[in-house]
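Input for the complex:
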Amino acid sequence: MKIYNSSTHKKEDFQPIKEGKVRMYVCGPTVYDNIHIGNARTFISFDVIRRWLIASGYEVTFAQNLTDVDDKIINRANEQGRTAEEVATEFSDKFIAVMHKANVMDPDVRPRATKEIGPMIGMIKTLIEQGHAYAADNGDVYFAVRSDPAYGEVSGRKIDDLMVGARIEENEDKNDPLDFALWKAAKPGEPMWNSPWGKGRPGWHTECAAMVHRYLGTPIDIHGGGSDLAFPHHENECAQATCAWHEGFANTWMHTGMLLVDGEKMSKSLGNFFTLEEVLEKHSAAALRLLMLQTHYRSPLDFSWERLEGAENSLARIAGTVQNLRWAVSHAEGEPDAELAAKLDAAVDAAKAEFEAQMNDDFNTAGAVAAYFQLVTEANTYLDQAGSAVDTDVVAGAAASIAGAFAVLGIELPEPEEELPVGLLGVAAGLCAYTGDDVNEAAERILAARAEARAAKNWDVADAIRDQLRDMGLMIEDTAAGSRIKHVK
Ligand SMILES: [Zn+2]
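Predicted:
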């Protein structure tokens, strides 16, 4: 498996530190608002990466924090006349709920910053003892960036270039403008904790470094986040951890590309800003995931409602094919053509091999999905050509392979509803004097009644059957292998 390491700018052979085990950390949200679809892209990308590592046989431990104390939370609380804790609790709960809706797996560990103050203070003390940090007169504690010779390696920046670009802040407490806060002295009305440097709260970069060390142990295999986090957040996390514990921090850094809406940067002022929640109110998580995974995680992703609608249609087509394959298996009749079956069987093997190769090439989900789109086309061709004389083993294998591949990506194909509505029995009774209570038998009878009407060119009856079904949200689908009743999407 090859993974692009954004700190070396190379695709590298992935070698976990401990054989068969992967420890990974992805920075979680600052919980002051609903997450937008740009954030969602990062979380869905790493969910797929994690799922593929698990599917490849690794034992994965995945940690993700909740930043539940931060300036943004405090500002939001002040605007709304609430406490910071109330705001953080509300949006932590909403984040977890919307992640579930998006079919993102829960992390194995989800530490919250406010519950990890002790370990953070411990790390800051260690940094001060080793000369990498200092307490300022105002009660802040800063990390001395120039004390870390490796500073800049995560994001590929040089300290001298940073100086040119650095906004020189009006902050006389810092020894150097590049230094960043590990601990912030308390201001009135803010959440605060006791520390050796007086009351205050931790800096954002500090929490991830301390949590990675506490819950996963350093160094870890994979550290990820959105590309906007590479600098300064990840650079600063890494500087603290490596200077405190001298063990390295993360072997592979992974960063997701940005999300655009209709080709433009998403922003509230442009009116093209969408939360994950509102997108999932209109569309399925499976369609959103399919749309996202059709672009490689490092490339810019263009979101649009049209593309999402397109993904929804693709998904319906894939699910429809899987349903047709399964239906063909249960209604198979006649001697299958061996040559046709061998062709489909080879297409299944080819799709599986291509899917694996693409996923092992830096999680190229776009290529992996394309391999299965191809198989869906081949499976439909087979069904058309074979009619009801299908090779049940090969066809069942194709259906399982397609559904399985999308499941690995966290895309659950819509399942057909197994039973027809009870009301259909009435229609069946009216149409063909049927009085039993087995819905499948009722469906067979309705189809038989329609076939009979059509054979007799009795179009009024055939149309009446169709119309009554439509009123009930049902349709008759005619396939090469026969007709059946389906729910209208
Ligand atoms: Zn972080």
